[in-house]
């Protein structure tokens, strides 16, 4: 049974390249996986296109019958390699806190494996009210609708599609792999250069 949407303000955020710059950590995790398996992985290319599910990326490097095992091993490697090098993007904590300061709830909805996403948030002191992992693009609408999110903030065209599928306002930031033109074409309602401008925008939105 899904919860009834809350009448208060609920804002969803993507994780990778929206709240956090996980590229340094993800690069290390893939380097360890490549060394263990003997499979060549272009880690610079991998971190240039973060967003889609892990399985989608692994298909570029592993045969079909080895993808699940590679994903499991990557997720196991991740806590010891990827958390510490990853940093909060400018304005990330303040953006989450801005929602809460208005009496709202901040949720993180990400394609990342949820236990590893939780480690990132804890390490960086980003205190979201709700965390849901394992959802990508239109699949994110499931969580956004369940929690009554009116806004979803992300960096990827997949995030824009997720917001639109949930009838939520799509706020996009250009800190990830998609530029302003791509995000606008995908249907983003608001485009910001990064999250430092989000608190002021949110206050204006909430007052309207």
Automatic annotation (TrEMBL):
GO terms for molecular function: phosphoglycolate phosphatase activity. InterPro entries: HAD-like_hydrolase_sf, HAD-like_sf, HAD_2, HAD_sf, PGP-like_dom2. It comes from Streptomyces sp. NBC_00148. This is HAD hydrolase-like protein. One of its GO terms (biological process) is DNA repair. Pfam families: HAD_2. SUPFAM superfamilies: HAD-like. Coiled coil: none annotated. Keywords: Hydrolase. PANTHER family: PHOSPHOGLYCOLATE PHOSPHATASE (PTHR43434:SF1).
């Amino acid at each position: 049974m899904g919860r009834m949407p809350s009448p208060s303000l609920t804002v969803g955020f993507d994780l990778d390249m929206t709240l956090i710059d996980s590229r340094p950590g993800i690069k290390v995790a893939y380097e360890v996986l490549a060394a263990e398996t003997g499979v060549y992985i272009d880690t610079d290319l991998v971190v240039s296109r973060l967003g889609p599910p892990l399985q989608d990326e692994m298909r570029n490097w592993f045969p079909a019958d080895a993808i699940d095992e590679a994903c499991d091993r990557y997720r196991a490697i991740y806590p010891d390699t990827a958390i510490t090098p990853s940093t909060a993007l400018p304005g990330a904590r303040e953006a989450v806190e801005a929602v809460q300061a208005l009496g709202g709830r901040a949720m993180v909805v990400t394609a990342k494996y949820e236990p590893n996403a939780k480690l990132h948030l804890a390490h960086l002191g980003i205190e979201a009210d709700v965390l849901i992992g394992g959802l990508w693009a239109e699949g994110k609408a499931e969580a956004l609708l369940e929690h009554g999110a009116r806004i979803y903030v992300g960096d990827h065209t997949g995030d824009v599609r997720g917001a639109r599928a949930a009838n939520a306002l799509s706020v996009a930031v250009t800190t990830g792999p998609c530029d302003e033109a791509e995000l606008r074409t995908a249907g983003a309602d608001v485009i910001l250069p990064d999250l430092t401008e989000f608190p002021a925008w949110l206050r204006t939105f909430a007052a309207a």
